[in-house]
Amino acid sequence: MSHEHHGHSHSHGHGHSHGHGHSHGAGEGKTGDGAVDYAEQNANFNSEEYARMTETVPEWQAMVDAQRAFVAAQEWWSAESSKTYKTLDFGCGTGRLLCGMGARLGAGSVGLDPAAGMLTVAREHAVEDGLTSVVTFDSIDPAKDGAELDSFADSFDLVLNVLVLHHLSKPKAIVERLIKALAPGGRIFIVERADGFSLDQLKSLFAAAGIEVTAEMTRDFDIPPFNGNPATTMTAYHVLGQKAI
Ligand SMILES: C[S@@+](CC[C@H](N)C(=O)[O-])C[C@H]1O[C@@H](n2cnc3c(N)ncnc32)[C@H](O)[C@@H]1O
């Protein structure tokens, strides 16, 4: 598969991969060099059980908590505690981060993901958290490179894209589309694994789309053995930016 950012391959182990949407053929689970083959993980990709399993890993929850805390620590977030954010989460997975925004989630919020199993669990969270009147979870076609986003021009106060970029064949094009979906002055929050992108690459994606980086955080997370991958430490970059007003 081709990637716009150089040097990245999917052959390294992803400690907590949720699978992804590329269409691979059947796989053996490991490539010849012992690295993880995503084809096998993808066999389970649309499985609801698989999505639920990701939620039993406490370290995964710790990552979601760290993401939420990072946003909540921003001055603009705490300045007006009753302000709500119409939010898009592209590659929302089980919808934890989106639903975790609770009362701060604005009407018309959307979670998009190609995996039916992820969406089923995300919709359950919306029901449990009483958020069905403000958020919908919809399916996207991974082959369309985010074309579905074009109907949302200038709509969102906040766009989330968490641990998804390394799954995409055209990350740059998708970041551009995500930024188009932002309203003027809207915020974009991207989280990515250090073995998928460098911090410089992430910042260049923002810069290329004319976005000012307003905050960043680098954090390590210990990931236990999961889904056939060995235990690992995952370094994650968290980058927040704002679209010009
Ligand atoms: C590592 S998980 C992260 C999920 C969620 N953002 C989180 O942090 O828990 C990667 C997600 O990317 C989604 N994904 C894979 N390919 C995609 C694509 N082409 N477009 C959008 N999302 C994709 C997967 O379905 C999966 O839910």
From TrEMBL:
What are the residue boundaries of the Methyltransferase type domain, all occurrences included? 88-190
The Gene Ontology terms for molecular function here are: S-adenosylmethionine-dependent methyltransferase activity
Please name the SUPFAM superfamilies in this protein's record: S-adenosyl-L-methionine-dependent methyltransferases (SSF53335)
Q: Which Pfam families match?
A: Methyltransf_11
Q: What protein name applies here? A: Ubiquinone biosynthesis O-methyltransferase, mitochondrial
* GO BP of this protein: methylation
Which UniProt key words apply to this protein? Methyltransferase, Transferase, Ubiquinone
Q: Which residue stretches does the UniProt record annotate as biased composition, category Basic residues? A: 1-23
Locate the region Disordered.
Answer: 1-36
The record ties this protein, via InterPro entries, to: Methyltransf_11 (IPR013216), SAM-dependent_MTases_sf (IPR029063)
Which species is this record about?
Hondaea fermentalgiana
